[in-house]
Amino acid sequence: MTEISSELTKKLSAAVEKMPGFSKSVQRILEITRDINCKPKELVTVLENDPVMTIKLLRILNSAYYSFPNPISTVHHCVVCLGINTIKNMALSFATVGVLPTHNDAGFDIQNYLMHSLTTAGLARMLCQKYDNGATDPSDCHIAGLLHDFGKVVFAQFMPAEFKEALTLSRENNTSLHIAEEQIIGADHSIVGAMLAEKWQLSKSLSSTIRQHHGEISPQNTMLSCLFVANLISNKLSLGDSGNAVVEEMPPGLVKRFGGNIDEIIANLGDISKVVIEAESYANVNKEVNT
């Protein structure tokens, strides 16, 4: 990874600081759930005092994606059905989707970016469920997938001229966007994304995963491995568009870890249409509730 100057670090930090923070309720949810012994009642109380978050949770849980036999009508029922960690990560998903800008001067397509991020999130969770031994929580892989490219949003919003030039360079030279960003900006979106995760006080493992997702991938790191492969699948199948013109190669270590190349992994996963339905549900619920 390229070393960046103190001057560029200050510039990137200034851009990250301009990104909006989370609501008080989401901050409180993150605070409560840092304690593995936290009581469900505390989480329920916070959610019940945030009507917008409650509406989003209930709409998702009563959508075609989950298909529960009976309607979910209370926050308490949400927590009972899915557990504290899943509800925490759903709330975090809504919060991050909610801070996406509606416009940027770089010409970066936010809706296509959102679909890429949401499908990568679902695929990362799916890969963890299928290929991990249970040591890693699949919902943590989901959040890594959701946030892995958020540095692009920072670039598009607060460094639009440079980012637009990087997008053009990637497309015209058929080179990976993170390489084009390094050439034009001096740093890629993974660095800025990790800085943003730290600003939002997310876990160290998550910020580290975001920072490393275009670096050397250790097959033993489940979250990082699942994110890398999920990102490849989303790009290869054109599930949304993150602005990257290139589908990267699978490192040999990951081919061994997942038992095949990217086409074989896709075949082994089977029907991934539910991942797309889930992504559309999150995007639509956020749009409906916020308009």
Structural features:
single chain; 291 residues; mainly alpha; Hypothetical protein af1432; globular
Which sequence of SSEs, written as H and E, runs from N to C? HHHHHHHHHHHHHHHHH
**Beta-strand fraction estimate:** under 5%
Shape: globular
Q: What is the third-level CATH name, the topology? A: Hypothetical protein af1432
Largest sheet: none
Distance separating the two termini? 41 Å
Name the poorly predicted regions. none
CATH class: Mainly Alpha
- What's the CATH H-level superfamily name? Hypothetical protein af1432
> Using only CA atoms, what is the Rg?
19 Å
**Multimeric state:** single chain
Domain unit count: 1
Distinct helical segment count? 17
* Class from helix and strand fractions: mainly alpha
Task: Say how many strands there are.
Answer: 0
Known CATH architecture: Orthogonal Bundle
Helix content: 55-70%
| Mean pLDDT, all residues | 91
What is shown here, in short?
The chain is mostly helical. It contains 17 helices and no strands.
